[in-house]
Each structure stands twice: as C-alpha cells, then as structure tokens.
Design brief:
Layout: H1 3-22, H2 25-46, H3 52-150, H4 156-227
Coiled coil: 121-204
Keywords: Coiled coil
Length: 228
C-alpha cells in the first residue's frame, strides 16, 4: 500500500474507534454494514465513467447520511452526559434533603429545650421575687424590733435575740437571693446561646432550601435539554 493510501486509511480507523466509544454494539454493527455497502457501491460506480453523475449524487447521499449520523452520535453522547449529570445532581438533592430533615429535627429539639429553659427562668425569677419580698418583710420586722430595743421596752434580751435571729434569716435570704440571681443570669446566658444556635440553623435551613430550588431548576433544565 502506498503512503497516500495509508494516510487516507488512518482517519477512517480513528473515526471508527470514536464510533465504538459512543455507539452500542448493535448500532455500531448496523452502521458498519451500511458503511461497507456504501463503499462497495461507490467502488463499483468509480469503475464506470458513464455512471459519474449517478456516483456524484450517491456520494452526496453518503455525505448527508454521515452528517446525520454524526449529529445523532453527538446527541446520544450529550444525552448520556446529561444523564450522568442528572444522576449526580439527584444524589446531591437526596443528600441536601436528608440534611434539611436532620436540621429540622434539631431545630425542633432546640426549640423544645428553649421552651423548658424559659420555664426554668420564669420559675427562678418567681423565687427571686419571693425572696426579695421576704427580705423586705424581714427588714421591716428588724427595724420594728430595733425601735423597741432603742426605747428600752421590757424583755429587751428576748427582743435582742429575736432581732439577731431575724438578721441571720435575712442574711440567709440575701444569700439565697444572690444564688437565684446568679442562676437566673446563667440560665439567660444559656438561653441566649440556644436562641443563637436556632437562628444559625434557621439560616442554614433557608440556604439549603434555596440550594435545593436551584439544583431542581438545573435538573429540570437538563432534562428538558435532553428531551429536545
């Protein structure tokens, strides 16, 4: 075989190899048989100059068929690529939905915890308010007893002892009030942290839902493109 003939044959082999990468076995076999038939007819037509006009038309038909086949091949390849992309995006959608459901459950749990925390804060504040009332009442009682002592009423030792006991009780209540105030402050701090966590999760959920809308829209566009 001469060198020009080798150079002519090389593109055909490369082209057929590309065909095999895209087409199924049955489609490739049918096309190869059709191509061999065309080449055989063209070879026969080239031996008879009187059939040149017919050969030219036949070559046009052959080129049109190859062009149509190339378009079909590109479409098949594009559809396969789109199908692969759709499958990949579908997995992303499933993963995003799973994360969204998990976030929703976590948000509900946190909101339930926040509700409990608010109840604890309310209860602690009620105790703190009660302690303040008791302290105020004790202050008034101590002031009253001190007034009696200062006037040198009889049974002063007994009154002094009672005043001391009341003062000790007042100090104890003050300590309890301080403890309750510290507990309330700590609960409010934890509550603020939980509220912030819920806010962040809500933002992440909205972002996730927005991403889902974009991915679904992208998938619909790809499916429509493949259908065309």
């Amino acid at each position: 075989m001469s060198r020009p003939e080798e150079e002519k044959a090389t593109p055909r082999v490369t082209w057929m190899e590309k065909e095999k990468e895209i087409m199924s076995g049955f489609e490739l076999q049918a096309f190869e048989e059709l191509e061999r038939g065309f080449q055989q007819v063209l070879s026969e037509l080239q031996t008879d100059p009187s059939l040149d006009r017919f050969r030219v038309e036949y070559e046009k038909l052959h080129r049109a068929l190859k062009k149509s086949h190339e378009s079909e091949k590109r479409l098949i390849k594009k559809c396969r690529e789109l199908n692969t992309e759709i499958q990949a995006n579908s997995k992303k959608v499933e993963t995003a939905l799973a994360h969204s459901e998990e976030d929703q459950v976590l948000i509900m749990d946190l909101r339930e915890e926040i509700g409990k925390a608010w109840k604890m804060v309310d209860a602690t504040q009620e105790k703190e308010a009660k302690a303040k009332e008791n302290i105020q009442a004790l202050k008034q009682e101590i002031a009253h007893l001190n007034g009696i002592v200062n006037q040198h009423v009889t049974f002063v030792p007994q009154k002094d002892t009672q005043a001391v006991n009341l003062e000790e009780e007042r100090l104890s209540l003050l300590r309890e009030r301080d403890r309750l105030a510290a507990t309330t402050a700590e609960l409010k701090k934890e509550l603020a942290a939980w509220i912030e966590k819920v806010r962040v999760l809500d933002e992440e959920k909205l972002t996730c839902e927005h991403d889902l809308v974009i991915v679904k829209s992208h998938l619909q566009g790809k499916r429509a493109e493949c259908d065309r």
